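Subject: two folds for Thursday's group meeting

Dear M.,

Sorry for the delay on this. The cluster queue was jammed most of the week, so I only got both jobs back this morning. I'm pasting them in the order they finished. Each block is the input sequence followed by the predicted structure tokens. Could you check whether the formatting survives your parser before we put anything on slides? The first protein is the one we discussed after the seminar.
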Amino acid sequence: MTASKGLIRYPIVIELGDRNNAHGVSVPDVPGAFSAGDTIDEAITNAKTAISMMLDDYIERGDALPEPSSIEVLREREEFLNSTWAFVDIDIYKVNAKAPPSIPGKSSAMSS
């Protein structure tokens, strides 16, 4: 999480594609958020859209937003061994104006 108010940084896993297959992206901390793209840049951009849509659903239901994990912790999981990683920054207030006052990973000192 960055210090900017409302900004959440989620790690994403990139499954590299090839000439015949798109690059795939999954978001371990946001169940149901995944994407693909013909280029890595496109796959990451599409992941940002997928995460935003899922977080909007969380907010609309009144559910707590998922906490971002550390890549160091995630990469130890067997399904992520030898994976390619990146981060996607999400401005939760651009996702939904009804965003909760408490953003995952933020201490109250950072929010003031």
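Second protein, same layout:
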Amino acid sequence: MHRQSKGLKVSKTLKFIFSAGIFLTALQANAQKTTSNSPYSQFGIGQMREDLLPQTRAMGGIATGVRFQSGLATLNIFNPASYTAFSRTILEAGLYGNTTQLAKGGIKDNTADFAFSHFAIGIPLNKAGGVAFGLMPYSDIGYRSVENTVSNNIVNQRMSYGEGGTNKAFVGYGVSPFKGLSIGANVGLIFGELKDISTISFPNDLSMLRSSSNETREINGVTVDYGAQYSKSLGNKLNLTLGYSGSLNNTIKSTTTITRTRTDGAINNDIENVARDTVFIANKDPRKINLPLKHNVGFTLSKGYNWMVGADFKYADWSNFQPRQGQPQLGKNIGGAIGGQFKPDPTSVKYWNVVDYRLGFRYNQTQVRFQDNKINDMAVTVGLGLPMPETNFGRTFSRINISAEFGQQGSLSNNLVRERYINLNIGFTINDTWFLRRGYD
């Protein structure tokens, strides 16, 4: 007698529960923490975090034409057309950390931060394509400036700083209408808070009250982005993939609340005393803000498990973004990236011969103009794809992906702030066959 059934193993259910726990932890961590330490994050809605995972960040951020890495489908949120390549369920979770050195004139300042970075799941639907969902950081702000003045022998300290961030919860679907061509789209929910705070204190006279103004922007809205890929075998195990991804001028909502308080003085201005009283509070009418029109094109050329190279060209037009009062108009973000990976010997029994080694470079002319100067961003990227032992009779493949970006934004010329940073990302990837059709005699 022959019988068929579908089911999930208990171990896989536990994996899902564990992953859901990571999802909730990441949600809480991202809601409370900022991972930006850039003076340029005060413009727009903060420092933008692209939909990139460590395995593509390590290659300069090329992602438009990426479908496979080391012979396995990859969860490439940047281009949802890639979801049609899924043959196994993919679980992704990761951590993010950075160190930043800010310099202006002869003054330097160093900061560091750490947070959960992403959680995502991709599920194959066989001939019906593939679906993915998860949570990613979308933007964050983290700047700080201090100015001391003396008036009538009284020292006034004015401090401005920003904190907070926005997240993107998304669900996406990709389908292949005919062989070689794939199309897909993501629908995202943007949410979070951005805080701009300014204080006036008198550090030499603690009897004087400190005033604080807190402008909180609550950001929420729905976005849609989309993509297409065309993949073709060139023979001799070579494969070429051409890709496009982009988004229209998505519109989201910003609701601002302004609160002004007075607190007792403190020797350390970083110490936040309980407010003595609230002298002003106002809720502004919600306003719509336009996100940029985006176009990305790219390609990858790969040879089986051995190597892959590629390049991306990225364009985002922020000209229609409505800046806050007193801030400069944003412009166009134009950039490019090249990168790739190689595996020394896919058939080797030596571990370091089956590791993926990744390298890349990216350059962006950002949308920010500061003191009438364009702000450029560039970075060299490196990374590793560390395979883990196969489990579940060869049906489960796991990998740890590590990326590092060594970059600089801005410069010391024209009285600008030079920002040198190292961004570290660690991702944990599981490729697993969740749904099995078994036969019993």
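Two things I noticed about the second structure. The chain has one domain: 3-440. The first strand starts at residue 3 and ends at 7.

Cheers,
T.
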